[in-house]
C-alpha cells in the first residue's frame, strides 16, 4: 500500500481557552479526494489551516505531509516548507489569491518566478494547469475583475497547480458562485481528479454536500471539532450512521451520487 500524503494524529487546535479541533486523526492517500462537511464553527477551515501550519497545533499533535513530520517547524524551516509547494491552499474568494492589479497570466506563475523557474518552463506549466481546469488561455490576459467568479476560481486553482503540489486544500471553493459557475468548477475538479490520479490528493471543505457528492471518494463529517463520521461518500450519504450526519443530509433537498457511477439522483432519506 502506498504511503499516505497526509497523516494527522491526535491533532488539536485551541483558540484561547476554546478547543476548536479535538484530538482529530485522519489519513489521506495519494489520489484520494476527501470532502469535509459540517456546520459553521465545526472546525472545517481550522483543519485546513492546521494542515498548512497557518495555526498552531496543541501539544501532543502530530502532522505528517508527504512523509515529513512538519508538526514542530518554525521560522525559516516553516517558510521553506511552505515555499516547497507540497501543499497548496485555494481560498473561497479567489481575489484573495489573485492580485487585482496584475494580469491573471502573471499571477498564476508569480510563485514560480519568485522561485527562479525559467520563463519557458513556467509558461509550459501554466498551460498545463489551465488545461487541467478547463480555462481558455486567452482569458488570462485580463485582470481578475475581467473574469467571472467561476473563471477566477479556476484560475486560482491553476495558480495552485503550477507548483505541482502533492496535496490541494480547497476551502469552500464553490460557495461564492452562482449555480452555473459552481457546476463548471465542480466539473473542473472532477476532471483534475481523474487526470492527476495518484499524483495529487485533495481535501475539499464545503457546506455544499451535493458538490462533495459529485467529486469526493470519502466524506468526513465534523461536529464541534471532532470527526463524527468518516466513510465512502456514497455510503455516508445514503446510509449515515451518526444522527448529526442525518440532520445535515436532511437539510439538502436532493443529492447526486458520487463519482462515475451516477445513474440517478440519490434521494434524501425520508
Automatic annotation (TrEMBL):
SMART domains per UniProt: AAA (SM00382)
Keywords in alphabetical order: ATP-binding, Nucleotide-binding, Transport
Domain annotation ABC transporter: ranges: 6-249
Keyword Protein transport assigned: no
InterPro entries for this protein: AAA+_ATPase (IPR003593), ABC_transp_ATP-bind (IPR050319), ABC_transporter-like_ATP-bd (IPR003439), ABC_transporter-like_CS (IPR017871), Oligopep_ABC_C (IPR013563), P-loop_NTPase (IPR027417)
Family classification: Belongs to the ABC transporter superfamily.
Protein name according to UniProt: ABC-type dipeptide/oligopeptide/nickel transport system, ATPase component
Lineage: Bacteria, Bacillati, Actinomycetota, Actinomycetes, Micrococcales
